[in-house]
Amino acid sequence: MKKFSREAITPEPTPLIDITFLLLTFFLVSTMFRQEEKALNLNLPEASNFDTGVSKNSPLTVELTNKKLVVNGTSTTLDKCDDLLKALENKKQTVEVRIDKTVSYEKVIKLLDKLKKYELTNLNLVTSTKKP
């Protein structure tokens, strides 16, 4: 009679390495498609009946909260933003305006007056889309 010896069963490392690299590749590629983070964490008003029309390559973004104003990632105030707006050469470019819903109406009007003063009239008021 023949004696059978028991061998220890060990998992094969090659498929595990392949799966690890596939997962790594997936996570690297999926993080490339994330939208860039904006400068301020805004609580945008919701809109449900129209397209927000956010352009992916907008050259100018303006974000306003009760305490801060950020123009293209540069933190400033309403009084000091004249230099940034005056320096813009292309007056026809799209301006994405992101305003927190708690900002007073007076501040919004002051910001819109500043943009109009420097002939930046191609505005895109960004809202968050309402979840159905």
Keywords:
29% helix, Nucleotidyltransferase, domain 5, single chain, alpha/beta, 3 helices, 7 strands, rod-shaped, 5-stranded mixed β-sheet, two-stranded parallel ribbon, 132 residues
What does this protein structure show overall?
It is built from three helices and seven strands. By secondary structure, it is of the alpha/beta class. The protein has a domain at 46-129: Nucleotidyltransferase, domain 5 (2-Layer Sandwich), CATH 3.30.420.
The DSSP helix count reads 3
Mean pLDDT: 78
Main sheet strand line-up: 4-3-2-5-6
Principal-axis shape: rod-shaped
Rg, please? 26 Å
Structural class estimated from helices and strands: alpha/beta
The share of residues in extended strands comes to: 15-25%
| Named CATH topology of the domain at 46-129 | Nucleotidyltransferase, domain 5
What pattern of helices and strands is seen along the backbone? Answer: HEEEEHEHEE
